[in-house]
Amino acid sequence: MPSANALFVFEAAARHENFTRAAEELNVTQPAVSRTLAGLETHLGAQLFLRGKPGARLTDDGLLLKEVVESAFSQINGVLDQLQERRTGKAQVTISVSTAFTTHWLMPRIAQFQQAFPSVDLRFQLIPGPVTGPTAGVDIAMRYSSASETSGRFVMREAYVPVCAPGYLNPPPQDGPALIRLDGEATEGVASLMPGLGLRREGQLGFSDYAVVIQAALVGQGIAAGWMNIVSYWMNEGRLVPAVNELVFPGRDCRILSRTDGANADVVQAVRDWLVDEIQSDLRKIATLYPPLGVDSVLKPRDYL
Q1: CATH assignment of 90-305, given 3.90.950.20, 3.40.50.300, 3.40.190.290, 3.40.50.2300?
Q2: 147: nearest Cα among 253, 278, 259, 292
Q3: 254: which strand partners?
Q4: Which pLDDT score is estimated for 112?
Q5: CB-hemisphere CA count at 13 Å for 304?
Q6: Are 142 and 254 contacting, i.e. CB atoms less than 8 angstroms apart?
Q7: Which fold has domain 5-67?
Q8: Is the pTM higher than 0.85?
Q9: Which one, 107, 140, 267, 305, has the greatest CB density within 10 A?
């Protein structure tokens, strides 16, 4: 191997099937990722990726290496967790969630988590963009699925409402409100809910991480699509308010997948149940605060409606 680091770069690129997202995760530049992977392919004498837009697809050789690398990393992580547990006496639980969920929902209540689970250390697999990817090597993963998929525990129907800081629209900005969006996300869905507000398209703010989108809304820079499982804490705190009283349902369910066997499986299930209960409790509070939104429907699976 030219460098053991090449395997870490390959794993990230293979998981995202996107060199730019892999670079963001590894805190390096996209050209550095491309050079590392090109060197690995030269060393192996095999093409691992088919480059193109919108990302990079794995070849058959790439898929073969991805399977082995993921398995090896999972075994190494398992042993490292065991060593850590021996040293600290705490169970290690790894969760795969978005940076936005971690920043804006979990971190504000981390003291509550530690009080509920004093013998658990959380570890994170953070996803800056769309919440996708394999769940191998993690204990708990938040993912979105179609109505026909029933794996994992149901959390809520995927939904968002345009949100902004209190007072941002009172009075409205003279030249119209600005729209804060996630790069690559269509803005027409949010704009269509705000007739008469004079959406200032030239004033749009775009970010590659949804955590920054919500931060910009919190400090009064405009209106953003507030995904309910992300913004529920700030809505209950009064730091974000609905710009319009209408929910949008893209059509998927939010579910939490969790490991059910192996060491500390009972702890993993308890953490999963705590996450689900806290998210749903937040949503019930919002239903009381903003009755016109009809948030109660978010908590009911579509086959129940």
Answers
A1: 3.40.190.290
A2: 253
A3: 144, 156
A4: 94
A5: 10
A6: yes
A7: Arc Repressor Mutant, subunit A (1.10.10)
A8: no
A9: 140
